[in-house]
Structures are given as C-alpha cells and as structure tokens.
C-alpha cells in the first residue's frame, strides 16, 4: 500500500515532534545533570571549608593569633629627653648628679 | 661593684628580691605605702611563673605534657605573650627552651646553681616547640606537646614590671619607676625633673640616659655565665642551635613602650648578633644600644647621643 502525500507529511510532522521532544528532554536532563554535579561540588567545598574551620586552631583555640602585632607600631611609646643628652658619669666638679636607677644585665 | 644611685628629690627608694632579681622601686615620698601592693604583685607572679619553684603553676604545667590543663589567667596570658613574641620573631625569641637550658646546666636559680659543671654528652637541639603548643582562650587551657617545657624568664619579669606600673598608675601614684633585673619601666616624671636618669648596663661608669617615658631592658652575658666542662656557658640561647648564642655581642639594651616588648627585643637582638640585631630593631622602630665584646658600642634608632664630660 502506497502512502499518500498527506500521510507522509503527517509522519514527518510526528517524527519532527518526537525529535523536538527528545531534544528538550536531553536539554533538561543535561541541565539537571549539571545542576546535580554543581550541587555536589558546592556541597563538597562547603564541607571542606567547615572541616577546615573546625580544625583550624588559630581562631578560637589555637596558638597566639598572628593578627595581633606584638611589637609597637607607635614609636612614641618611649622617649628620651632630647634637651639633656645621655652622659657617662665621671668624677669632677662638672659631673651630673648620680643616676636614679640602673637597668642591669639580666 | 654597685653604682652610686640617688633617688630624685621627694621620692623614696624601695628594694626587695623577687623572681630571681633585685626589684628596685622609686615612689613619691608620700606614697611609700604603695610598695606593699607591688611586693604582693611580684610575689604572686613568682609563685605562678617561676620555673625554679617545683610548686609553681608553671612547674606543674611543665610536668603535664600532652594533656589539656586549665591554668590561671596570669599563667595563660604569660604563655600567650611568649608564644605571640615567638611568632612575631619567627622563633628567635623562644619560650620553650627549658630543655636546652637544662642541658647546659642551668637547672636552678643562678645564685644557687654551681658555676663549674661537668661536661655533657647530650647533643644540642634547636628550639621551636612553641609552634606545637595549643592554647584555648575560651577554656583557658594549655596543651604542651611531648618534650616541650616552658621557661618564661625575662618576659615574665618584664610583664611583672609593666603590671606593677599599671597598678601604681591606677592607684593614683603620679610618678614611679620599677626595675626588676634588666627590665625597667617608668610612669610620670620625678618632681622638678625632665627625665629619669638611668644607668645602662652593669658598668658603674657606663652611660646614663634621660628616659622620659617607656621602658628599657638589658640582656647580656656579663652576669649569668658559668663553665660546663671547658665550655663557657650563658643563659641567652640561640633557638636555631639550642646552644648559647655565640657572636660579637656582650650586652644589648632596648627602649620600647613596655618592658615586655623591650625584653623580647633585647633577647632577640642578642641572639641575632650586631648586624642582624640592628636591622631587627630598626624594622621594629625601636631604639637600642649594642655593646660588643671589646667594649665598643653601636646605637640604633632614636637612642640619645652620648656627651663625654671630659671632652667638654
């Protein structure tokens, strides 16, 4: 039995429709696949970061934080009197009064 | 020979022994009562932080490696400061060199220990155990790794001097000076004076500097040294080797805002030697005086110029 032009056209339209549906399903499946993969990767990263936070001892339970500078950034924390130079005490009328204290070798 | 020292007018001198050193305090004559609280403070710090007292909290902690130990706020803060100083100096300051000090015979207070010891076969090892100490500020716990033992030595003495000045300041004392061993801190100015005239180092005819504010710390090997076999030993170790620092320096004095910082900087500078020590002080914007073995000196930063009286 020979197909009529109408039936051929109908079959072609059905094939095209199936093909289009298949393409849409493939696209959706791909999108879902990528989304799932992205989700897994994201979850892995988050878990890793969480684990890192728990293990990092330097925030809450670690050695002294390096974020706190030990040495002064402010040099004005100490000062000498620029008007009276340091001196080496020696005997004589011009000798200054004795020192008031000593920073002896520890 | 002790140098001649004279208290400024209207100020009184107070002396006592604590933390292995003579503590020297200058207070206004009408506030001599404040010395009681300073004495109590040093007694408390020594009882907590001395490595020479078996019953001290530090000694107890040193005997409990590998387990979390809840400590007092004072011990926690002192260890925290020591570790912070070690971190800031990349380990050239090291609060965990007690095993190395014991190896070279420094196992008791310097005044009690013998100054001529038998040689040791034990091989030196470098420091760095501080990197494995775990501190929990919330729980106030310390975990020392196996083999690690803490000696807070000079930094504890410096922190005690700082704390004493804080105590006096909060108590309304308008001017005070606290000197503990090599660590000295001032508060305010003596009556009718522009500065505190401080003799630097152990030489009675040495340099006197006019300190207005802040702290001075001196580290050197002229006092604490001894023989182990034929080896000359001293207490300033180089953490890179675990042996006493061996370089051209005899003494280092550093000026900083606090004794805590000045003490650490002087110790580090001594361990590094003159050239690197000078760079270290410059990079931290500190002032210092480095004395070589031959007696020549090198000053760093805004250290006051010396006026030679005989040349005037």
Overview of this protein structure:
The complex is a heterodimer of chains A (106) and B (312). The longest helix of chain A has 51 residues, at 5-55. Chain A has 106 residues and is mainly alpha-helical. Chain A is built from 1 helix and 3 strands; from the N terminus they run H-E-E-E. Chain A has a domain at 1-55. The N and C termini of chain A lie far apart (116 Å). Chain A has one helix at residues 5-55, and strands at residues 79-80, 86-87, 101-103. With 312 residues, chain B is α+β, with helices and mostly antiparallel strands. Chain B has a domain at 57-151 and 190-311: ApbE-like domains (T-fold). Helices cover 27% and strands 28% of the residues of chain B. Chain B is built from 7 helices and 18 strands. In chain B, strands 1, 2, 7, 8, 9, 10, 15, 16 and 17 form a 9-stranded antiparallel beta sheet that branches. In chain B, strand 11 and strand 12 form a beta hairpin. The longest helix of chain B is centred in the middle third of the chain and has 18 residues, at 153-170. Residues 308-312 of chain B have low confidence and may be disordered. The interface between A and B is large, with 44 and 90 residues. Strand 3 (101-103) of chain A pairs parallel with strand 9 of chain B.
């Amino acid at each position: 039995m020979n197909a009529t032009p109408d039936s051929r056209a109908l079959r072609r339209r059905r094939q095209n429709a199936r093909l289009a549906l298949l393409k849409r399903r493939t696209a959706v499946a791909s999108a879902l696949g990528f989304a799932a993969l992205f989700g897994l990767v994201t979850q892995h990263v988050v878990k890793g970061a969480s684990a890192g936070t728990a293990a990092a001892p330097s925030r809450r339970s670690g050695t002294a934080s390096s974020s706190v500078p030990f040495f002064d950034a402010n040099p004005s924390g100490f000062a000498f009197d620029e008007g009276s130079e340091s001196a080496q005490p020696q005997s004589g009328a011009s000798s200054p009064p004795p020192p008031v204290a000593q920073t002896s070798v520890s | 020979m002790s140098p001649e020292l004279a208290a400024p007018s209207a100020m009184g001198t107070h002396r006592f022994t604590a933390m292995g050193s003579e503590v020297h305090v200058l207070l206004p004559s009408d506030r001599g009562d404040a010395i009681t609280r300073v004495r109590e403070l040093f007694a408390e710090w020594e009882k907590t932080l001395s490595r020479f007292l078996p019953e001290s909290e530090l000694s107890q902690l040193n005997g409990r490696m590998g387990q979390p130990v809840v400590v007092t706020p004072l011990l926690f803060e002192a260890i925290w400061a020591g570790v912070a100083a070690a971190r800031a100096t990349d380990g050239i300051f090291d609060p965990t060199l007690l095993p190395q000090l014991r190896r070279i015979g420094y196992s008791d207070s310097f005044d009690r220990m013998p100054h001529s010891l038998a040689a040791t076969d034990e091989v030196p090892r470098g420091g760095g155990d501080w990197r494995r100490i775990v501190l929990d500020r919330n729980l106030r716990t310390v975990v020392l790794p196996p083999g690690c033992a803490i000696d807070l030595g000079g930094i504890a003495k410096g922190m005690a001097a700082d704390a004493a000045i804080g105590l006096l300041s909060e108590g309304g004392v308008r001017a005070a000076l606290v000197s503990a061993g090599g660590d000295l801190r001032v508060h305010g100015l003596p009556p009718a004076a522009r500065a505190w005239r401080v003799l630097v180092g152990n030489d009675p005819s040495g340099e006197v500097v006019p300190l207005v504010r802040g702290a001075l710390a001196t580290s050197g090997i002229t006092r604490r040294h001894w023989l182990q076999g034929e080896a000359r030993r001293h207490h300033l170790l180089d953490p890179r080797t675990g042996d006493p620092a061996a370089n051209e320096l005899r003494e280092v004095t550093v000026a900083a805002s606090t004794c805590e910082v000045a003490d650490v900087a002087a110790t580090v500078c001594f361990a590094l030697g003159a050239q690197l020590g000078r760079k270290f002080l410059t990079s931290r914007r500190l002032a210092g005086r480095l004395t070589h073995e031959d007696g020549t000196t090198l000053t760093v930063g805004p250290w006051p110029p010396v006026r030679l009286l005989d040349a005037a």
